[in-house]
Design goal:
GO molecular function: dioxygenase activity; metal ion binding
Protein name: TauD/TfdA-like domain-containing protein
Cofactor: Fe(2+)
Order of helices and strands: EEHEHEEEHEEEEEHHEHEEEEEHEEEEH
Number of helices: 8
Distance between the termini: 49 Å
InterPro entries: TauD-like_sf, TauD/TfdA-like, TfdA_dioxygenase
Family: Belongs to the TfdA dioxygenase family.
Radius of gyration: 20 Å
Shape: globular
CATH class: Alpha Beta
């Protein structure tokens, strides 16, 4: 029997009009043992719908690695390099992810103490909480009453030396239950979003691009983001804004000369907009916390310059200006009241849920607060890409620069 695909259940707050082509629940197939024909259908569906959910999945770490590798057969190792994060205490990812001993391409993430798991005698898992990363915080009293924030919006990528993974898998082995929590944006908007405990929040890069006004579409198809060497160490002393969608500009970035040894040829510059390899649609894909420079190409010959931002091209290096621009571009995509309703999909995890998502088409964020005795155990797998994301074509740029 071939796999079946049904629309993913949406929370009451979501606007169905913006999720028509987002998310499918997959049934009638074992994701740990796919035929070649079934995999082709899964692969096409992933790029068409960006998120695939398999309920009650049963996968070993080796099967999870094999499944993710099938989307990029030439990929070999974890997105940040096998076991590299475990020994890099100055990296802001340190302590949140740990490689499994026998399958280092698969990471263990979660909360609480886990014992006797896949060759690990005992490990203390740490869930990302906003007070560890944001400049401001919700009071401990409000946290205890169920208020929280988005931790950090991102795509999974090293953004130095290694290419972004095509696909990420999240596999929930232990999922604690608790009352609903309320995400506060705390940016002066008064925006809030009801979510289940420990949700993973997703936003579509395609929707983020589509809802932009034409003058910003004109800009983003011409823009490229330059990331620093060792970007997760570059921001180790900096703090994020209250929505998790970018950094405060307090001059706390580590000087490039103080970073570990690096090579200019390994520094990454990616288009703001990445092209979907199956649908051809454009996805706005910029890591909001890690951009060092923005390079803007001129408006193409024959296109209208009037009303365009940076019509003659530009190289932006002031971090405050860059972050204000990125926030203007990306903040509408996480708005809980955008257009008619919210554009965020907060996944309500159940035990043995397997979620595959198009890592080159979505941003996502950890959310929520657990108590010390609530054990959350997930396996995560994403592999450094064997190629770079594809940017907009000449025709795409001319289309959105034609006025």
């Amino acid at each position: 029997m071939p796999p079946s695909f049904q629309p993913i259940p949406l929370p009451p707050s979501a606007d169905p009009a913006h999720f028509v082509d987002f998310g499918r629940e997959v049934a009638d197939v074992n994701p740990g043992n796919l035929s070649q024909e079934d995999f082709k259908q899964i692969e096409e569906a992933l790029y068409k719908y960006d998120v695939l959910l398999f309920r009650n999945a049963q996968l070993t770490p080796e099967e999870l690695y094999t499944l993710v590798k099938a989307f990029d057969p030439q990929s070999t190792h974890y997105a940040h390099g096998n076991k590299q994060l475990d020994g890099t205490k100055k990296n802001i990812l340190y302590g949140y992810v740990h490689a499994l001993p026998h399958t280092p391409q698969v990471q263990i993430i979660g909360n609480g103490i886990v014992r006797n798991h896949e060759g690990i005698d005992e490990i203390q898992l740490k869930h990302g909480r906003h007070p560890e990363f944001h400049k401001t915080r919700i009071s401990e009293e409000d946290e205890a009453n169920g208020f929280t924030r988005f931790f950090r919006w991102h795509m999974d990528a090293a953004l130095y030396r290694l290419e972004p993974p095509r696909v990420t898998a999240l596999y929930g082995l232990k999922v604690p239950k608790g009352p609903m929590q309320t995400v506060r944006y705390d940016d002066g908007s008064g925006d809030e979003l009801q979510v289940t405990l420990g949700t993973t929040a997703f936003v579509s890069g395609k929707t983020m691009f589509n809802i932009l006004p034409n003058n910003l579409k004109n800009l983003v198809v011409r823009a490229k983001a330059k990331y620093p060497p060792h970007p997760f160490q570059w921001v180790r002393d900096a703090k994020a804004v209250s929505t998790g969608l970018g950094m405060e500009s307090d001059g706390l970035e580590v000087p490039l000369d103080d970073l570990p040894a690096w090579e200019e040829k390994e520094v990454k510059i990616y288009p703001f907009v990445w092209k979907n390899p199956v649908t051809g649609e454009l996805h706005l894909m910029v890591h909001p916390c890690l951009v060092m420079e923005v390079h803007v190409d001129p408006v193409p010959l024959g296109c209208v310059k009037e009303g365009a931002l940076y019509p003659d091209g530009a190289c932006l290096k002031d971090l405050e200006d860059i972050r204000k621009l990125l926030y203007q571009i990306q903040r509408p995509g996480i708005d809980p009241k955008a257009i008619t309703n919210q554009l965020v999909y907060p996944h309500p995890w159940e035990e043995n849920d397997l979620v595959l998502f198009n890592n080159r088409g979505l941003l996502h964020s950890v959310v929520g607060v657990f108590t010390k005795d609530q054990v959350r155990l997930f396996h995560q797998c994403n592999l450094a890409g064997s190629d770079a994301p594809i940017g907009p074509s000449k025709e795409d740029i001319e289309t959105w620069c034609s006025g």
